[in-house]
Design brief:
3 helices; alpha+beta; Ubiquitin-like (UB roll)
Length: about 100
């Protein structure tokens, strides 16, 4: 079971409290997790990544095992701790400004 942590506004759209647990097909990648998330919660389609290009939306970041994976290819396998459900995959809203 893969654990996913999302910001409050995405949890509100998905109508969930706390983290989400998903069955995800291997290999466990950011893409496979996001595919499973969008399949289970269709209201999230287009919020985390673009409908057409499937690229991460601006001001959205991905983290796993305390590493920022936002600029890594989304088809690379995630750390084993995430694949085993020990650590969550985190979707975080970034803040801009100065």
């Amino acid at each position: 079971m893969i654990r996913v942590v999302m910001p409050a506004h995405l949890r509100t759209l998905a109508r969930v409290d706390g983290e989400v647990q998903l069955e995800v097909r291997e290999p466990i990648t950011a893409d496979s997790i996001l595919d499973a998330l969008e399949e289970r919660y269709p209201t999230l389609r287009g919020t985390v990544r673009d409908h057409v290009t499937r690229r991460r939306r601006p001001f959205v970041r991905y983290f796993a095992c305390e590493q920022d994976l936002s600029h890594e290819p989304t088809d690379l396998p995630l750390p084993e701790a995430v694949a085993r459900g020990e650590k969550p995959f985190m979707i975080v809203g970034a803040i801009a400004g100065g």
